[in-house]
Amino acid sequence: MKLESKSPEGPLAEKWTKHKFNLKLVNPANKRKYEIIVVGTGLAGASAAASLGELGYNVKAFCFQDSPRRAHSIAAQGGINAAKNYQNDGDSIYRLFYDTIKGGDYRAREANVYRLAEVSVNIIDQCVAQGVPFAREYGGLLANRSFGGAQVSRTFYARGQTGQQLLLGAYSALNRQIANGKVKMYNRTEMLDVVVVDGKARGIVTRDLITGKIEAHSAHAVLLCTGGYGNVFYLSTNAKGSNVTAAWRAHKKGALFANPCFTQIHPTCIPVSGDHQSKLTLMSESLRNDGRVWVPKVAVKGLKAKDAKSIAEADRDYFLERKYPSFGNLVPRDVASRNGKMMCDEGRGVGATGLAVFLDFADAIKRDGRDVISAKYGNLFDMYKQITGDDPYEMPMMIFPAVHYTMGGLWVDYNLMTSVPGLYALGEANFSDHGANRLGASALMQGLADGYFVIPYTIGDYLAGIGWNDKVSTDHPVFKEAIDTVNSRVQKLLSIKGKKTVDEFHRELGLTLWEYCGMSRNDAGLKIAKKKIQELRTEFWQNVDVVGSANELNMELEKAGRVADFLELGELMVDDALDRKESCGCHFREESQTTDGEALRIDNDYTYSSAWEYKGENQPEELHKEELKFENVKLTQRSYK
Amino acid sequence: MKITLKVWRQKSKDAKGEFKTYQHDHVSSDMSFLEMMDVLNTQLIKKGEDPIHFDHDCREGICGMCSMYINGQPHGPLQTTTCQLHMRTFKDGETITVEPWRAQAFPVIKDLVVDRSAFDRIQQAGGYVNVNTGGVPDANVIPISKKIADEAFDAAACIGCGACVAACKNASAMLFVSAKVSQFALLPQGHAERKERVEKMVEQMDTEGFGSCTNTRACEAECPKAISVANIARMNREYFSAMVSSYEVKVGGGE
Ligand SMILES: Cc1cc2nc3c(=O)[nH]c(=O)nc-3n(C[C@H](O)[C@H](O)[C@H](O)COP(=O)(O)OP(=O)(O)OC[C@H]3O[C@@H](n4cnc5c(N)ncnc54)[C@H](O)[C@@H]3O)c2cc1C
Ligand code: SF4
Ligand code: FES
Predict the structure, then answer these.
(1) Domain of A532?
(2) B33 and B146 fall within a common domain
(3) ipTM
(4) Residue A358 domain flag
(5) What number does the ligand 2 atom closest to the CA of B176 have?
(6) For testing the chain B interface, which of A278, A382, A385, A457 should be mutated: the one with the most B CBs within 10 Å?
(7) Across the interface, do A137 and B146 touch by the CB < 8 Å criterion?
(8) Are strands A35-39 and A58-62 parallel, antiparallel or unpaired?
(9) Residue A151 confidence (pLDDT) above 50
(10) Is this model's pTM higher than 0.80 or not?
């Protein structure tokens, strides 16, 4: 298989314009003869479905929640980047491109990243026209804040609820097309397979989550906008339902899966409080602007936040300030996370579990006064208190890193098409723009760029190429076969009637990945993980207990299907991490570090994206490499000392 | 802690439901309410029983999916979402009653899961600005005063959970609908269509079978996002002026 990125030739700034001109167009009168399936209606899917409906295509859209408004995108807090340069502080499309490619540690495609920066400005215009209530200055113009990894102020926000407001904007555009009859929406419906006939994606198989009915849907093209797979770790900041099933089933039907080991771990989350913990809550990264991170110099077992005062100043180790004097507490996410975990591994962690570090505002409150701190972080302090019962004005917060975002995903070319013709991936579900590490406020930008401003152009080229009569109906034997396969898998899960719950398997998988394929990885550990995951997967199919039946709302059954897929993905993540013997971005290979313990990239050997090909049940997957060419930026090593 | 739970169990939409009592002896005060339910469900599964079904997703108080009626209050005793309620709010030994949202327009699907698609249909009736992707003006072309933008945001913060309907003795959806109407009535982008919008959304609300508003303000008191009843007053004004002007159009005769 040859990987063709389809990156256009020519100067960086002209690539997208030229490419758009070269794409084939579908005649307006013919658009209504095409059907398009959009799976997932978060930022990427809702924006795509609405825009395609506006163009005149017939769209069927699917989500597993009870409404598109609940997609995980709703939870994004901080903001969305755009190179508007409204602040006159030297921002430009090129600078946003440069920051993103550098932040991704040079493991993303130049052409894609530039296009992302280019269309970012249109996103803000679009959202404002929809009535998204962004934050504003007293003069009435839009406000900006600065965000991790950038020296300019380019982040647009709507209090701490940017994702919510952007998603509700896209949802309103989607609703308008539903009302116009151009989009048919299927809520509480889960896609369980992609149907490929004659090498092209022709439709999907779904399960109605209320009645259990398994059904086929056919179309000229299928878009997967199904979000990230951070929940493979069980505990993450993702919503409980976030999963890899759609992407994984597509992978098993021929779509390559790229960079699966690139997982972003966010340093400031509320620590685990016990075995009952079901998810992790993010505390905004902005807290590190004023909070100081520390642990005691000598381990104190079970040190509570309320007793932190008893540790004298001289006995505290402000480890980020000590190790990175120039960036201090503001080092990037991966560096802060890794160092926090290191302290806990040394036994110097705090709290009942020893898996936490302090984030202390005492000095900031003394310096600026309680009112100033409260104006900046009041709502975060309240939220922290509500969840933990501790008051951050009186004692330090306790924080610990948590899985937050997955840069890996389905491999796509410049047109966002996977390696299966007619099958596309958008938003967090693809691997496209963030390389080995994503900058804050860039995921919302990418999801909306893909949905509003990229796919409406690129899909026309494919559709015009195949013609509207090139469609397969659901009577085709391959659809029937796909329905049977999905049905028998459901029956199989229900028939095992073993001794362990789905969650027990999921937790074990999560712990294994966290331990060996989390913030820091090495060859020996990864090999242990691989073996453990294989064993766990075998055990799952013999010993899982899924209660209830197939023809009703059955949330255990839904979870079981998702965990079964995570158990396969987990092994591929480990394989990918084993292959990449360099440290880059979020991926820290202990074998590849500088003498003072910092990440060391190896550009000569690893300047590629890994794209894995499925080869059959329990067969090793085949690695394809997309070599990355940098014609516009010079590769440099990151340093935060 | 130990608690006793009285939970509404209902196999499906048309099945008859009933309360079942569960003794829960392994509750930590750090658990969220939903985590407490998770642990109970694990115990039920281990005994081969069907776990209690409830909606949830983000567990961060923002998706609006969680929806339990706890001890006679939507989302329980605090003005927050069910997922942000923690067991330290309850006393050791307490009996807690858990029901689904009760409203004609929100039929029960199973146990504590209800069908809130009526909310989507109200939004589809007019909860948007008629603009296509692309071809819109620069975002800073129309300045909007900070005060208006903040007020619009306050209305737009609604998470669509339906607690307002569950709290209201008339099962009225006025708070939910007025939040969207207000957001667009405040922002210049929404002005062109404000009349049609309010008419269509109110009409759909009535079609769905939500009750009328008698100003008890129970909705505001239970809304986890503190959406204000001032929005209802604003919607009534919008509706009234829309009705007057469409009447003028109708009797006016023109072309
Ligand atoms: C707590 C938190 C805070 C964040 N803050 C920011 C921020 O400030 N700025 C930023 O840029 N990014 C942020 N992110 C990241 C960002 O929110 C996500 O990457 C982004 O919203 C993903 O959008 P999406 O459209 O790709 O997927 P999602 O919003 O996850 O949507 C997935 C959709 O797919 C559907 N789906 C999935 N599987 C199936 C299936 N099998 N069948 C049918 N439907 C399916 C779901 O129903 C849903 O509609 C944050 C993430 C988290 C967790
Ligand atoms: S108005 Fe409040 S209670 Fe009603 S749906 Fe919105 S957030 Fe929920
Ligand atoms: S689960 Fe999302 S608001 Fe409670």
Answers:
(1) 489-615
(2) no
(3) 0.97
(4) yes
(5) 1
(6) A278
(7) yes
(8) parallel
(9) yes
(10) yes
